[in-house]
Amino acid sequence: MLSQLFILSSKGDPLIHRDFRGDPPRAPRDVTELFHRGVSAARGEQPPVFLTLGGLHFAHVRHGGLFFGATTEGDASPFTVIEFLNRLVTLLRDFCGPLSEKSLGMNLGLVGELLEELVDSGHIQTTTAEILRSLVHSEPESPKAFSLLDLGSVGLPLRSEVFVDVIERLSVVIAANGSPLKVDVQGEIRLKSFLPPGTELRIGLTEEFCVGKSELRGYGAAVRVDECSFHSCVSLAEFSAARVLRLCPEPGEMTLMQYQVEDELPTPLPFRLFPSADAQPGGRIRLYLKLRCDLPPKSQAVNVCLQLPVPKGVSSLSQELSSPDQAAELDLGSRSIRWEIPKIQGGSQLSALFKLEVAGLGRAWRLELGPAHGSFQLPAHSCSGLRVRFLRLSGPPAPRWVRYRSHSHSYVLRL
Amino acid sequence: MPYLGGEEAQRELRRALSNPHVQADPARYRGAVLRVIRLMAQGADVSGLFPEMVKAGAVPDVVQKKLVSFYVRAQAPRQPQLALLAVNSLRKDCAHPSPAVRGLALRTMCGLRMPGIQEYLQQPLVNGLRDKASYVRRAAVLGCAKMVKLQGDCEVDGALVNELYSLLRDQDPIVVVNCLRALEEILKKEGGVVINKPIAHHLLNRMPDLDQWGQSEVLTFLLRYKPRSEDELFDILNLLDGYLKSSSTSVVMAATKLFLVLAREYPDVQADVLVRVKGPLLSACTSESRELCFTALCHVRQILRSLPGHFSSHYKKFFCSYSEPHYIKCQKMEVLCELVNDENVQQVLEELKGYCTDVSEELAQGAIFAIANIARTYTEQCVGILTELLGLQQEHITSAVVRAFRDLAWLCPQCTDAVCQALPGCEDTIQDSEGKQALVWLLGTHGEKIPNAPYVLEDFVENVKSESFPAVKMELLTALLRLFLARPAECQDMLGRLLYYCIEEEQDMAVRDRGLFYYRLLQSGVEEVKRVLCSPKSDPSLGLLGDQSKQPVNAWALEFNTLATVYGRERWALATAQQPVEPSYSCSPCADSRNRDTVPEAHPDTPMSEGNKELPKAHPDAGSLSLIPDVSLTAEQFEKMWLSLDTSCQLSLPWRGPVHADTMQTALRVVHIQTIAMSKAGAQPWKAYLSAQDDSGCLFLTELLLEAADSELQVSVKQNEAKPEALQSFISALRTVLEAVAGLES
């Protein structure tokens, strides 16, 4: 049960506040100020998720610099509170467009209406986007210009169409000798449907798809996942025989299936790093990095960013990069080099030469160098090899889209 | 914050709202209402517009009605007279053809927190409960709870309760869940909604219709149902099986908890469930939502306390990623420490080593201590890594390593030689008090193995005048005296100088006394000094004390999926004991102001995410009463006094389930109440004797008596001086603690 719900700007100004219970009665300002003081008092940048202040139990999530917070009773389930707050963020994004102080301010009436239907006297009523759309009547106001590409996010599904997204998140650790220490893929199939209700959808997955280690199907190019769970509305009648998911999607967005792959991937990992570093007299480190992209030649990686911690006392950086579109800079706050590459084609190789001036270079400087932390996106690529074979509708034909995307924010390359 | 130009804006809005042209144009009318809401959100006083706003609520536009409803609910407590105006039009709306309007009107009326509203509520609510539209029934059901709450202490209407129980069979799943919630609130005093066999099975059958929120809530309500037979129990568990695989983490966790609690007598079932929940929990730990990830990590640690090694094969999932916030990294490091086994120790240490050079000092030190923790089992590898880190010559790293070394030398004597070899050179880098103390201790205790120990200590003696930490000086005195016993020739001169300084020039009394003490000790001869100072240099058995012994699953099953697990038991006991939850709804102004007064002293970092190392100071929660922390009262004295005194006060508190002695003792200690004696857990009757003393010397002796589980806790208090006010405050403090503990355990 939620007692209060609030949204604060990063500076602590209350944008939205609701007191559902009124016991004990407190001025909204008191509560939000109390919370913000607690949050700012926390050392470091990231305050703890759960706080108890002045007899109130706070929980919050952060999105786009905003705090979405709630106070609960002592016996509340932390998972429910966090999940609800995350759901609230998704809903607000669905209804009002990208979240910011400004967009929430503009849509005050809409947000108010939403909260009214979401929660009654602290009890969560419904969070289904479709039901909410039928109950909420305010028009969204978007600070951005009207964009055709963004129709879904402003709640104007004009055409009957369906999107299936295969999204994979990689988390990898590669040892200094190039052998993968940890490979972990969290994947999901997300469906965004604007189909008329009652349409049945059949999604065919790769036939050689198998779950778990023991199950083996066919030869060679099997797609194997370790664990896999489905949304409750998915019918699995045809799954074991033909790897087909069947469902009647409600309009809106949902996650159909979630899966994980550990350790073994059918394709090589997208990146390898070949570093060489040596110290030169006068407190200088010469660092030569070669980054190889092992994707198939037709694929590419975009928004690649490599962050490499460097020894304490570093004062300046000089660089030679292999192509002009790359950029590198020294970030003294996090004591690291940030190497940014907008695009890298599969099979190609990039290099960078960095010279670092380090005051008081100690003998153990190598300990402080690295590991490199990469982040990138791989459009039209699925690391697990999972493909959607077909997408069939029972009703009248409608445009169907299948998109693949892999990305990583935790790609660690040890030096 | 007063809104600038509020007066002006309000006047203008009033003009707009009452302008017939505006009223005729729905878009403009709604725009004006929206501006009022905006002003209100900015904190301006818009109470003057009440009549206009009520009128604005009487239009067909639902959006506008909602805005007005929000306004009316926020403003009604300030203007009860005018609010009655609104009631009239709301009652009309309750008969509106649109269910959305009927539901909204009901919610609004029940949300007017003002006295005397109940009489207007009765009829619309009764109609609402029988409405055709589920939307209205949902609002009406919760409205009943709000109405009962407004009534305060009045007798609860039995007919209403029966009606709500019968609505548990409603078609609409949300109405069903709302009924449970409403009954829980209405019957709070009687222990909440009763889940008997038919209701339990009915709810289990309705589970598939509910959404995730409903499911996790119903699973929580089912916790209080006790199956009659083993067959029934396993039937229920079978029905619940699917929810362990739900795509919503909160449902999985609620189901897990229910399994653990229902199967409390079947450890095999419990273990099986914990194996099956591994997957969902791990995927929550790697979730994109950091907050969810953190919550899951806290629960992983809880499970590890009973099943060490449960997640060992998945240790890689707990590797930190660069961009994660500290609270997650700290949790992950703690988890990694507990997962170490022969197979993965190399990889885990390799990973932790990477964190030791983190740009955040706090995190780097955390990683070093994590390695030190693992060093108790895998000494050699860890000492190697720690020694390597000393080469970085960075203040915070060296300090943490030396502190880790001190603890290791004490716990694992076999690594003393390696530690002693690594020490030379550290003294130049360490600046903080803790690090210096550790270094000085090592030099003093193991000085005979470190060739340059006397010279390092000599530097400390030379600079003792500028030393700012008294604790370092104390440590230096002891260390030098010890080293003197081992290497007298090198140390005699500087020991003399140090003693002279401490006795003649030192300002800090404790240091001076220590100096004088050693001086006198030296006068009684070296043999005597040896006898006093040469205590053992290590004690491996102490390490076992630190290791938490395996907890049975049942010890925390009831805390699973609650905030208590997120905070950790000790912190949670403190967090709740400090600020009692007001049991009654009515909140008097004075209680409110007390809450506010205590705000500044509440510790913002009290319940933190990083382990349970530092406990915040306790604030005894009593206005005039201040209990002193140490009462020297032996059990015999207590018994004598107990028998000679008359009981000053007796009361009984509701209690459910067994008593957890540790939690209770911790909580009582927080408010400076000592436990003299306590029966074993599970004993019947269970008894405890407590004592406390206030600053005027008045003693409070207390007996707690629990005849049988699930009964009342009898509390009798005796006092050695008759002081009614002090007694009152003491009892309220005691009561607060006991209620907090009871709330925690039930």
TrEMBL record, chain B:
Residues 627-739 form the Beta-adaptin appendage C-terminal subdomain domain. GO terms for molecular function: clathrin binding. GO terms for cellular component: clathrin adaptor complex; Golgi apparatus. Residues 593-604, 611-620 have a biased composition (Basic and acidic residues). SUPFAM superfamilies: ARM repeat. Residues 585-621 are annotated as: Disordered. It is a peripheral membrane protein. It is found in: Golgi apparatus, trans-Golgi network membrane. One of its GO terms (biological process) is protein targeting. Keywords: Golgi apparatus, Membrane, Protein transport, Transport. It comes from the Eukaryota. Gene3D superfamilies: Leucine-rich Repeat Variant (1.25.10.10), TATA-Binding Protein (3.30.310.10). Pfam families: Adaptin_N, B2-adapt-app_C. InterPro entries: AP_beta, AP_complex_bsu_1_2_4, ARM-like, ARM-type_fold, B-adaptin_app_sub_C, Clathrin/coatomer_adapt-like_N, TBP_dom_sf. Adaptor protein complex 4 (AP-4) is a heterotetramer composed of two large adaptins (epsilon-type subunit AP4E1 and beta-type subunit AP4B1), a medium adaptin (mu-type subunit AP4M1) and a small adaptin (sigma-type AP4S1). Interacts with TEPSIN; this interaction requires the presence of a functional AP-4 complex. Interacts with GRIA2; probably indirect it mediates the somatodendritic localization of GRIA2 in neurons. Component of the adaptor protein complex 4 (AP-4). Adaptor protein complexes are vesicle coat components involved both in vesicle formation and cargo selection. They control the vesicular transport of proteins in different trafficking pathways. AP-4 forms a non clathrin-associated coat on vesicles departing the trans-Golgi network (TGN) and may be involved in the targeting of proteins from the trans-Golgi network (TGN) to the endosomal-lysosomal system. PANTHER family: ADAPTOR COMPLEX SUBUNIT BETA FAMILY MEMBER. Belongs to the adaptor complexes large subunit family. This is AP-4 complex subunit beta-1.
